[in-house]
Amino acid sequence: MSKKAVVLLSGGMDSATTLFMAKERGYKCIALIFDYGQRNRREIKSAKNVAKKAGCPYILAKVTLPRKGSSLLDPRIRIPKGRKRKAIPSTYVPARNTVMLSIALSYAESMRAHYIFIGAHTEDYSGYPDCRPGYFKAFNNVKNIGTKLGTKIKILTPLLNKSKSEIIIKGLQLGVPYRMTWSCYKGGLRPCGECDSCYYRRKGFRKAGVKDPL
Amino acid sequence: MSKKAVVLLSGGMDSATTLFMAKERGYKCIALIFDYGQRNRREIKSAKNVAKKAGCPYILAKVTLPRKGSSLLDPRIRIPKGRKRKAIPSTYVPARNTVMLSIALSYAESMRAHYIFIGAHTEDYSGYPDCRPGYFKAFNNVKNIGTKLGTKIKILTPLLNKSKSEIIIKGLQLGVPYRMTWSCYKGGLRPCGECDSCYYRRKGFRKAGVKDPL
Predict the structure, then answer these.
(1) Do B63 and A61 touch (CB under 8 A)?
(2) What residue numbers bound the domain in which B23 lies?
(3) Is the pLDDT of residue A196 over 90?
(4) Closest CA–CA distance from residue A173 to any residue of chain B (Å)
């Protein structure tokens, strides 16, 4: 079995770390970057830079998703400040991981890659239903039944039970270029420092005892 | 619960019939048409015409899928003539139904539509793994766990156990404009008459005892 892997790459810290972990484990990685109309256009550029730094080819897949209802897509909805995590936040993009995993599955099957890596984790983003372990188990069944290669393709989630600081510590050992990554939900010139994603990034670096290079 | 429904519309006979069945049952339908780089560009136009004829708004969603390996996408692969159905045919597009259903799910959730219709059926296309009843059951779990609305969204497959001729008979009762639909895998000026899809269309009309208006 070839060790070819499709790695979902968003431009953020988690997927960048996942890419470097996959490389460390000897996988021949192809990064899959999505343009789904996200307001934060900067993360696409970051993802490309991270792929180049890792020496991996990348695919930029475009997909039309509905703008309505998600603050990551709809400029009329304000990205929430601070960290009020009751229920599912407005930054939730409906079915995003399912869309991304299914496109990754299509590419993996087409290029006969037997592995898909996704850098989802549960600790910080428990607000997203499509980051739960049970979700990946369910998607796994879809993959097994609904494709030609079926069980021959594995979906790997190496960060699933890791905390942000553990991810950062691991990533620094592997030389992940965190200065190239972009976490802020707003695509400004500098991170806003106020959104959920900035909050978790700052907290992660603080707990890891390291300065954020960004 | 609103009776708003997202209906996957390909431009072929099955999805057109599904749309008219959903309308008959009183659903307020929004057609979802995909441009996934299919060689057969004509079906996109057909889908738009069918939606207009049904009086339904439509969304055209673009999605980048891999060309390699599928004769519906890769012009270097010949679309098979005749009907040699051993294993999965080259017209299989990896994970296509999973990609389409996941985008439909994203739209349904965004617009708070509680129903998704897909015109898949098992009889003729048993070669496609993502048309099997077990596949839809598995995708259902993904939907239930991986979205905000979860079990509040239903995926309906009214054609699943119907034969092509049953579909046609039902469609004619409902006034489905079959002359507007396009089945041929090749996007030529006239149906090739030789591909799988032309074969099943012809066979369906013959069994239904009706002349194909196309």
Answers:
(1) yes
(2) 4-208
(3) no
(4) 33
